[in-house]
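To: structure subgroup
Subject: Chain for Friday's discussion

All,

I'm putting the inputs and outputs inline so they're searchable in the archive.
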Amino acid sequence: MIELRPFSKLGGADHGWLKAKHHFSFASYYDPSNMGHGALRVWNDDEIAPNTGFPAHPHANMEIITYVREGAISHQDSLGNKGRTEAGDVQVMSAGSGIRHSEYNLEPTTTRIFQIWIEPTTDGGQPTWGAKPFPKADRSGKLVTLASGFEGDGDALPIRAQARVLGTTLRAGESAEYAADKSRHIYLVPAAGSIEVNGIRVNARDGAAIRDEATLKITALEDSELVLVDAA
């Protein structure tokens, strides 16, 4: 079962410096029938104006993955971590028992990100932060695990959830396949381009909520970049 969630129908907010679209209920956008997809709780599509951002604020008991689509995001937190994550790269924050952080676009152009929140397997624990470059060329034509809570995904950034975040770039006509457990919750969003997933067209920034599919065949209708979450 593949449920298409067109970008044009997503909830959202325009704060001037921040233009946000919400794939699931978030902040002032509330839909009791759309509170998440399994352990995937938030998928926000954010556009952040130059020299603006989110001032220091707290989080706890959430795995927060930031996928940078364009520009860069600069992070600072109460543990003393600082970092700048560029387009195509990923940062992960395990909020654990509690952490404060800020996220700013210090670039001269708009930064565009996907911010993905996944509920952890257990609450509490020491908060952590990490970032890693994933050059797009290394992802071409195959799904690469960017963040994972599974042993064996050693090259991925660790998260405290039974989940994976994967990404790929596909040239027009190229395909990639993903073996999906039918009991899992899959959510897929093209960052750019358009694709077909098991025959269903998904355009840029649309969401596809997937259940009860044993195999996903993803074919690029044009040059495309996409992110996929496989969650409990």
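Points worth raising on Friday:
The mean pLDDT is 96.
The CA atoms of residues 188 and 228 lie 4 Å apart.

D.
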